[in-house]
């Protein structure tokens, strides 16, 4: 089922997610719905807060078609083919290592048509659980690391605009304010 994507200005986007404690069919269905929503929106990552649920879970899929893969990764010390690990469902993530930072243009499904440069760490180590509750460790760089950090931020109530420099943010302010106003109007009418 395709879920409604929350938009900037909705309070849920600033909520820290609660830990997932039940690994059951309901969680698996929620993950399937999140993936279906992410694909429908043509995204590569989606956090629970973006579908109005304050939980520690996000989904991602970096299978980018014919584009070259510009990242390296290991899951539990191995580097299986990308198609064997994607789509990836991440539950209760813990970022344990970060390495040097670099800028890259990001967008967000909760900020339609707003993109801007964000500086993030380039190498990440993350511990997480899968849908069965089993623990795993990922070490990755490049776009893989960036998506993990972007989605993990959502789980903490942090948005990509929070990482933008004033110089990057300034030209986007009008669009951001318009989106927030539009969201506020939607909440008044439908919320």
Quick structural overview:
The protein is of the alpha+beta class and 191 residues long.
Tell me what you see in this structure:
Belongs to the polypeptide deformylase family. The protein is of the alpha+beta class. The model has no long low-confidence stretch (mean pLDDT 94). The strands form two sheets. A six-stranded antiparallel sheet has the order 1-2-4-7-8-3. It has a two-stranded antiparallel sheet with strand order 5-6. The protein is globular, with a radius of gyration of 16 Å. It has one domain: Peptide deformylase (Peptide Deformylase, Alpha-Beta Complex). It contains five helices and eight strands, in the order αβββαβββββααα.
Query: Which fold name fills CATH's third level, the topology?
Result: Peptide Deformylase
**Strand neighbour order, sheet with most strands:** 1-2-4-7-8-3
The end-to-end span amounts to: 20 Å
Report Rg. Answer: 16 Å
- N-to-C order of helices and strands: HEEEHEEEEEHHH
Q: Just give the CATH class.
A: Alpha Beta
Number of separate strands: 8
Mean pLDDT across residues: 94
Count of structural domains: 1
Range of strand content: 15-25%
